[in-house]
Amino acid sequence: MITYKNISFQYSKNNVVINNLNLHVKERDIHGILGHNGAGKTTLFRLTLGLLKPQKGKILLGNNDISYMPTDNGLYENLTAFQNIEFRAKIFKVSQDVFNTEANLLLKQLHIFKRSNELVLKWSTGMKKRLALACALIANPKILILDEPTNGIDPESLNIVVNMLKKINQNGVTILLSSQDLNFISKACNYISIIQSGNLVYENSINVNTNIEDIYLKYTNSNVEE
């Protein structure tokens, strides 16, 4: 679905962020990218989205129908939840009929429908993350890219997000995400890659019995919490 071939990128001569990276994200995987802050995860996503261009190598996409949830959520906090998702639908040129059906459904599935007419400014971090996910899904993408989707969220929101990701994945959506939340990774993903200083140092399939923490410590040579 997504293939990275010998990808390299640097912001300056002495700041190599992605170093000759080769990686394949299979169709219908939930593929987690792990690594510390500054490891290159967000840059990799920006390259995938075409916001940056690799200086070496190439990226092959099996489908250009991509949606993205940034780490800062990308929400307008002085708008209501419903207005936020409506704004995103207009950007994606979602038809009114589809919007009328999908918007309320997404808000209900993510347990935020009853407060959808409130200003987002008043919401908790977990609720904002759920709304950002709804905004990313309104266009019904085939590939979903999530940058730190569970930063700072409560356990209830974590479970809601995990269940939603598994649901859409079962419906055919390929998911590529980054996170330092190893609990979330173990619950959501079936495959992981670890990036250290722009280099791919580990990749393999996982399941609920995989000891993610041991793998992470081994291949990053540091503590889980920074």
Name the descriptors.
226 residues; alpha/beta; Rossmann fold; six-stranded mixed beta sheet; three-stranded antiparallel beta sheet; globular; AAA+_ATPase; ABC_transporter_ATP-binding
Low-confidence stretches: none
* CATH fold-level name of the domain at 1-31 and 39-65 and 179-226: Rossmann fold
CATH C-level of the domain at 1-31 and 39-65 and 179-226: Alpha Beta
- The secondary structure category is alpha/beta
Number of helices: 7
The coarse silhouette is globular
Summarize the helices and strands and which ones pair or pack.
Blueprint: E1 2-12, E2 15-25, E3 30-34, H1 41-49, E4 56-61, E5 66-69, H2 81-91, H3 96-109, H4 125-137, E6 143-147, H5 155-170, E7 174-178, H6 182-188, E8 191-196, E9 199-205, H7 212-220
Parallel strand pairs: 3-7, 3-8, 5-6, 6-7
Antiparallel strand pairs: 1-2, 1-4, 8-9
Helix pairs in contact: 2-4, 4-5
Task: Write a brief structural summary.
Belongs to the ABC transporter superfamily. With 226 residues, this protein is of the alpha/beta class. It has seven helices and nine strands.
Structure characterization notes:
- This protein has 226 residues and is an alpha/beta fold.
- The protein has a domain at 1-31 and 39-65 and 179-226: Rossmann fold (3-Layer(aba) Sandwich), CATH 3.40.50.300.
- The protein has helices at 41-49, 81-91, 96-109, 125-137, 155-170, 182-188, 212-220, and strands at residues 2-12, 15-25, 30-34, 56-61, 66-69, 143-147, 174-178, 191-196, 199-205.
- Strands 5-6-7-3-8-9 form a 6-stranded mixed β-sheet, with helices on both faces. A 3-stranded antiparallel β-sheet has the order 2-1-4, covered by helices on one side.
- β1 and β2 (15-25) form a beta hairpin.
- α4 runs parallel beside α5 (155-170).
